[in-house]
Amino acid sequence: MDRLRTELIWLRDWLAWLPDPVAAVLIIVVAALIALVLHGWVRRLLRRALALRYPVLFTAVTQMRGLTRLALLMIALAVALPVAPLAPETRFWFARILLIAGIALVGWAAMAALHIAATFYLRRFRLDATDNLTARKHVTQVRVLQRSADVLVIIVTLAAALMTFEPVRQYGVSLFASAGVAGLIAGLAARPVLSNLFAGVQIAMTQPIRIEDAVIVENEWGVIEEITSAYVVVRLWDLRRMIVPLTYFIEKPFQNWTHETSALIGSVLFYLDYRAPIGIMREKLKQIVAASKNWDGKTAALQVTDTKQSAIEVRAIMSAASSGQAFELRCEVREKMIAFLQKEHPEALPHARQISFAANGVERRSSASEQQP
């Protein structure tokens, strides 16, 4: 920096024949160009040194290129500002702008560091694995805390930038001094933001939901696609997106099908005639699930769960490793069992019976399938 200051002083003396505003602009432009050239040279040097041997580190450095470019520009302008022949008032406002830009730069750097740290931490977890419960726990916790931290960094950065102005600082002091009604109004105005922020932290800690959890919200089945600092995006089964406030998952009940494990037990109901061969159906169910790629080999059973006036209720249950496989297995059992009954035991299908009397008063029972059209 001393070398740059020396060169800029020499440039100012050489441009003494020009009007001061023109010389000041030229000095600032030259300082900015030097910063950009230096940034490009360092970036090329890092690419040669890190791209092949340390690709992960090089990726992080590449993601920070905008931040480092702005930092070098601000350093160059901070060096050029005292050298440039500017009026005291103009130099004061330039210094104020640089101060605000420096505060914004610190906030940006904090957010970038959080994002890079989160990315490096989550590299070892894969959501596309078969057993991804641990991955979903860590991804949800890190993402929610990261977004909450981003909100806090933005609020602190804005507050620090505003406090550089004397009128705002005096207003803040007077506000703290008379913290009664003004504090109550501010608290009420910030309630939605703060409630979502605290709900996000609570979700990150207790984890009632995680990324890729299968849930039922408002009688809709879907998958948690994204958890932001204010709302949750639920991808429904038909690819619609339901936007739900964070506080919903803290204040209201909902179903989480993959909270502890992704394994589920699915059920299929059949309404059949009293002549249905339950034992044969039970064996057929075992054959169907044994031949299915969606069955996890744990649970398969068939029972008569209810009897009604004209039919019996038969429930088949079967287990699967995930909610998607459970749905596919239920559909498969339903289709194949109906096809089996239609082909082998049509008498088991529901019948509508009626009673008629012949002319001699003899009762004649028949089913609807036996009636002639």
Describe the structure in brief.
With 373 residues, this protein is of the alpha+beta class. The protein is built from twelve helices and ten strands. It has three domains: 1-123, Helix Hairpins (Orthogonal Bundle); 129-261, SH3 type barrels, CATH 2.30.30.60; 264-348, Alpha-Beta Plaits (2-Layer Sandwich).
Notes on the protein architecture:
The protein is of the alpha+beta class. It has 3 domains: 1-123, Helix Hairpins (Orthogonal Bundle); 129-261, SH3 type barrels, CATH 2.30.30.60; 264-348, Alpha-Beta Plaits (2-Layer Sandwich). It is 57% helix and 16% strand. The chain has 12 helices and 10 strands. The chain has helices spanning 2-14, 20-50, 55-63, 65-83, 88-122, 133-162, 166-177, 181-189, 191-206, 248-251, 278-290, 323-344, and strands at residues 214-217, 220-227, 231-236, 241-245, 255-256, 264-272, 300-307, 312-320, 353-357, 363-367. The strands form 3 sheets. A 5-stranded antiparallel sheet has the order 4-3-2-1-5. Strands 6-8-7 form a 3-stranded antiparallel sheet, with helices on one face. Strands 9-10 form a two-stranded antiparallel ribbon. Helix 1 (2-14) packs across helix 4 and helix 6 (133-162) runs antiparallel to helix 9. The longest helix is centred in the N-terminal third of the chain and has 35 residues, at 88-122. The chain is elongated. The termini are far apart.
